[in-house]
Write a structure and sequence with these properties.
alpha+beta, four-stranded mixed beta sheet, 16% strand, globular
């Protein structure tokens, strides 16, 4: 099964099936991937995405989004990932398939949630240590 590992703590990057990862930096493609990851539980309207990516250009053309999406797909392919099962696109929306996504933010939130269920100081400390390990740097 093709999956994509995405790290949003620190410099955004993703890793596919190949041994290397792709740094996304502050580029539009990185912001696009981050927005899709943060909202992986729902379809993102293409017009809304253009508003979020280019907030100072209220009428940013949809072709800018299409170009960024194309570059994101190319980056995925370069790490050995077929974007088809991961990026779900329609004429009006884009979403990531959460079943094919390993997101450090999701792991972090799951670990924090698990820690809240423990009342043993030792177990809680171990779980919070896992969360600290995931938190490599500031979010985005």
């Amino acid at each position: 099964m093709t999956s994509l590992q995405v790290r949003l703590f620190g410099s955004p990057e993703f890793r596919g099936t190949e041994a290397h990862s792709k740094q996304l930096g502050g580029k539009t493609v990185g912001r696009l991937l981050a927005l899709l990851c943060i909202h992986a539980d729902r379809d993102m309207d293409r017009r809304r995405l253009t508003e979020m990516l280019w907030p100072h250009e209220p009428h940013a053309p949809l072709n800018r989004l299409a170009v960024s999406l194309y570059h994101l797909k190319q980056m995925m392919r370069s790490t050995g990932v077929d974007p088809g099962p991961i990026l779900i696109t329609t004429r009006s929306s884009i979403r990531l398939n959460p079943a094919r996504l390993q997101l450090d933010l999701g792991e972090f939130l799951n670990v924090i949630s698990r820690a809240r269920n423990f009342f043993n100081d030792t177990a809680t400390t171990e779980i919070y240590t896992q969360a600290v390990d995931l938190y490599r740097a500031q979010f985005l």
